[in-house]
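Duplicate of earlier report; tRNA (cytidine/uridine-2'-O-)-methyltransferase TrmJ input re-posted below.
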Amino acid sequence: MLDRIRIVLVQTFHPGNIGASARAMKTMGLSDLVLVNPRQFPDEEATRLAAGATDVIDGCRVVESLSDAIADCVQVIGASARLRSLPLPCYHGVEPMIEASWPRLADGPVAMVFGRERYGLTNEEIGHCTHQLNIPANPDYGILNLSQAVQIVAYEAFKRHTREASDAASRTSRAGEAYPNIEQLAHFHDHLHRALTSAGFLNQPHAKTEAHLKALFARAEPSRKELSILRGVLNALERSDPT
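Output:
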């Protein structure tokens, strides 16, 4: 399962942080690293600070957008030191996040997204996520280095993996119910937007109605079959439009 946990670093400024993050990943058995528009990569500093984890560096993917990094993921969790106004579900701690996300790994990759060293992820980037993660720290000095944050996440994932090795029953996700990936969820939300717009429901552009609906479905965690049923409902409502 560890190979399905994806670490996504967005616009990393210091190449050494990429290498240190790769090292943090390899020590805990993670290998899927994706870089979104790094300032400088490949770079000797990244290789040097990888300290033996050069296979993670060599095998990483470099993409142009966050969407490219997460399109095949079944869950996307944005790490942020500060809570945002967006109504996304938030994990307050890495251990509960790993516990909640672990069953999804049977259906596809789960992405952990980390932002820039100085100011993290933008609101727009958080908007691409299904969940947020806040790593508790000293309120007087809660500043984690990028690779330190990656190490904490990787460690909790490795702990969960180790426990699973002695408990085969915990390996199953919801029986027979695969989770949709991010692309399938995006198609659903586009369909929902069209249907609600056609019905005249979205008549207050500043009400953040769609953001609340997105958060509702993120909490509900519909399976692919349930999502297909919902889209069937939307199709039926569109066909029955009296106009």
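The beta strands are 5-10, 32-36, 61-63, 75-79, 90-92, 110-114, 131-134.

Merging into the original ticket.
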